[in-house]
Design brief:
It is a single chain. The chain is α/β, with parallel strands linked by helices and 464 residues long. The chain has 2 domains: 164 residues, Rossmann fold (3-Layer(aba) Sandwich); 290 residues, L-fucose Isomerase, Chain A, domain 3, CATH 3.20.14. 38% of the residues lie in helices and 24% in strands. It contains 16 helices and 19 strands. Strand 3, helix 5 and strand 4 form a beta-alpha-beta unit.
């Protein structure tokens, strides 16, 4: 389960009112408390800075929130506040900004008491500040509506989860086992670019470098893991196949833990020996890693592996996948992959079986197979673009119920329906440069993904 996002509220106010209207600040405290409560009810952890009026106070309040280790800075105008008092420190901060454009009164109609203007005019302070942030090239997002409107607070929470995922994307350590699959170019991004722009580092090893970690795995650890597998999965394989896959998987798990890796990718062709202790392919551990919040993608794709990890730790229940086949007649797309799926997206208990592996001399691996849970989901792709830029493609889709053919039991599988014509979806996807490696997250995460993209400097590309 991902942690709850942590937001920090920066309340903005006008020094003039402390002199001319000395009771107004206290009278606006219930409004601030209502905003805090609304965000907390959406599952957010909320820290509140002291109310700030002048530059020195804004600098101190911002330092306070930075020390709270927040994911997202939320500005809240309790009244008008001149932008030049706050814009300097906000532009200098690296925190993502959400401007909460709310007021305490829902009804400001024709019969309003004009004194209520004092309590509801923060909107033009927000406009002053937003204009200045825009002029300085500082990115921000806005959520507008009545402070008691649950949909406004949900939008804030969705943006906060996008900010949390963006934070998880940065400064990752990603492991690649083996070379990138020969000839695959779409997902490759310059590692120097990933390091300089996002602080992401990539380490590449050969499978043989896992040997020490595998040999350190105790028989007791293997037995415990197999017992857990019997609870989690439908077991349909020879114990020897299960044993060798678990041994290799636990060794890989230890290597990832010891190295502090947040994501990894492997090229199955690199596992080319039938000899112990690396005599098979660790498909099973790839599945378990995603469930633990460690990102994964196949064929040496560290870019999508990092994406899957960031989304899993930010949103939860994220799996690596590929679009394999179109169902033109049914207006659907078939998703699958060789042996890697996050069990959290499964419709029922995944089946653990021995998979035929004819690609290298390695022995057959233990592999999971399952259908995806039907319902709404968001399909996501991070696509390198010209000029060292990235497009974040995302689309709300519907996962259909499982297929009916008896041989499907050996496959990772899902049929998804785009919201419109599958032909137009595929045209748009490839016009935007989408790669053949994707992430899928159950639920509607479009608002969060838009925030995620903006914070990281990706171009958000929603496909309808």
């Amino acid at each position: 389960m991902p942690r709850n996002p942590h937001v920090g509220i920066l309340p903005l106010y006008l020094e003039l009112y402390d002199r001319s209207l000395p009771t107004l600040r206290a009278e606006q405290q219930p409004f601030l408390a209502q905003a805090v409560q609304g965000l907390e009810q959406q599952g957010l952890q909320v820290s509140v800075a002291p109310v700030a009026c002048v530059r020195e106070e804004f600098a101190a309040s911002l330092r306070h929130l930075e020390e709270c280790d927040i994911d997202l800075l939320v500005t809240l105008h309790l009244a008008y506040s001149p932008s030049l008092e706050s814009v300097g420190c906000l532009v200098a901060s690296t925190l993502p900004i959400l401007m909460l454009d709310v007021t305490p009164d829902e009804d400001f109609g024709l019969d309003v008491d004009p004194l209520r203007l004092l309590y509801n005019h923060g909107i033009h302070g927000l406009q002053d500040l937003a204009s200045m942030l825009k002029r300085h090239g500082r990115d921000y997002q806005v959520a507008a509506g009545h402070v008691g409107d649950e949909s406004v607070m949900k939008r804030c929470a969705d943006i906060a989860r996008g900010a949390q995922a963006a934070r998880e994307w940065k400064n990752q350590r990603i492991l690649r086992i083996g070379e990138v699959f020969h000839g695959m170019g779409d997902f490759q991004a310059e590692e120097t670019l990933l390091a300089s722009r996002f602080g992401i580092t990539v380490q590449q090893i050969k499978p043989l470098e896992l040997k020490e970690s595998i040999l350190s795995v105790s028989p007791g650890s293997i037995e415990e893991e197999i017992l857990l597998d019997r609870q989690r999965y439908q077991i349909d394989l020879d114990p020897a196949v299960h044993d060798r896959s678990v041994r290799l998987g636990l060794g890989l798990r230890d290597y990832l833990d010891q190295g502090g890796f947040t994501a990894f990718s492997m090229n199955f062709n690199a596992f080319d020996s039938p000899d112990e202790p690396i005599e098979t392919v660790p498909f099973l551990e790839c599945c378990k890693a995603m469930e633990r919040g460690v990102g994964y993608a196949g064929e040496g794709d560290v870019l999508t592996a990092g994406l899957v990890g960031a989304l899993e730790r930010g949103f939860g229940r994220t799996t690596f996948t590929e679009i394999f086949c179109p169902d033109w007649k049914g207006n659907r797309l078939f998703l699958s992959h060789m042996g890697e799926v996050n069990p959290e997206v499964a419709a029922g208990k995944p089946r653990l079986y021995e998979k035929e592996f004819p690609f290298t001399p390695a022995k057959n691996p233990a592999t999971l197979a399952c259908a995806f849970q039907p319902g709404a989901a968001t399909l996501v792709n991070l696509a390198p673009d010209a000029g060292n830029q990235f497009n974040l493609l995302y689309s709300l889709v519907t996962i259909d119920p499982d297929g009916t053919h008896p041989h499907l039991k050996d496959w990772i599988r899902a049929w998804i329906r785009p919201s419109g014509d599958v032909r137009r979806f595929l045209e748009s996807y490839s016009q935007l440069g989408g790669t053949h490696h994707l992430a899928l997250v159950p639920g509607d995460w479009r608002t969060s993904l838009g925030a995620f993209a903006r914070i990281l400097g990706f171009t958000p590309c929603e496909i309808g």
